[in-house]
Amino acid sequence: MKRPLLEFTDKGIYCAPADVYLDPWKPVKKALISHGHSDHSRWGHGRYITHKQNVPIIRHRLGEIEVTGVDWTEPVHIAGVKFSFHPAGHIVGSSQIRVEYRGEVWVFSGDYKSEDDGLATPYEPVRCHTFITECTFGLPAFSWRPQKEVIDQINTWWAGARAEGRTAVLFAYSLGKAQRLLSLLDTSIGEIYTHGAIENMNEVLREVAPLPPTRRITRETQKKELTGNLVMAPPSAHGSPWIRKMVPYETAAASGWMAFRGARRRRAVDRGFVLSDHCDWEGLLKSIRATGAERVICTHGYSEIFARYLQEQGYDARTESTQYEGEMAEMKSDEPEEEAS
Ligand SMILES: [Zn+2]
Ligand SMILES: [Zn+2]
Predict the structure, then answer these.
(1) Which residues surround ligand 2, an ion (CB under 5 A)?
(2) CATH number of the domain at 147-273, out of 3.60.15.10, 3.40.50.10890, 3.40.50.720, 1.20.1300.10?
(3) Of 103, 129, 180, 274, which has the most beta carbons under 10 Å away?
(4) What separation in Å is there between the alpha carbon of 109 and the centre of ligand 2?
(5) Whose atoms come closest to the Cα of 134: which ligand?
(6) Ligand 2 centre from 175 Cα, in Å?
């Protein structure tokens, strides 16, 4: 039997003819990186190749690394294998990685979202023979409302908190969700203040994406200046002494998991807004159809259920286990990992 173009090994997704890995989870010589979330871009590789918008993000997270940034669709030739990066629409700089060798094409989705959020370069389906897809929200129960609708709810919630003389504290992951929300909030309602973890990431992303003005909360920030305004903080700030400065406040979280009954209570927030940076069930199916792929490999998320459904639809589908689990970790633990929704 012919060796597959991409193999799942204990270090990550391996392309043998080029001797490189895609989003490896153990240190390797050369890594192609789909995006900046910590489960996909790990520390310790000899060389990183990624989309140029992701370069400042992983430099911020990983420090002095050897990294090459490339443009969308720009070919990267390694030992006769042609690699290229294509928009995944998940967060700014997130890519699908296309791999072509001797007429055969594989695409690794990384994490992706089919709805255009206005900030990340919109997802584009890429034709291929084999598609490696994430399945974070691969259950029929996940069906997102259009972004506009959800943002209207969030702005209405903020305006309501302001009318009552309270601070609106919105929890969002510091890389991705936070900047997406910032770009969509109605700044005519009031000022936006940020937790340091989010503001540090904003400073990095301002190099590559337009964001509204925000104010970093410091020791000097007065309680009264926060009242009626919106504070954006990472989920880990909830329940910490940091939040006392916001009293009186209302809390909300924006995540795909808020679609789950009980998720809002579990996170102990007053409001839950269903807003995800991943595809919902229909989004996954539509995207997969658009690739024209006959073979589909399902990774992190509800991969078993999703692969079985694809098989029933006539696809040659199977699952592979990986160590990408940022989004799943959020539901499994009470202390959600930062930077992954
Ligand atoms: Zn991600
Ligand atoms: Zn992922």
Answers:
(1) 111, 324
(2) 3.40.50.10890
(3) 180
(4) 9
(5) 2
(6) 13
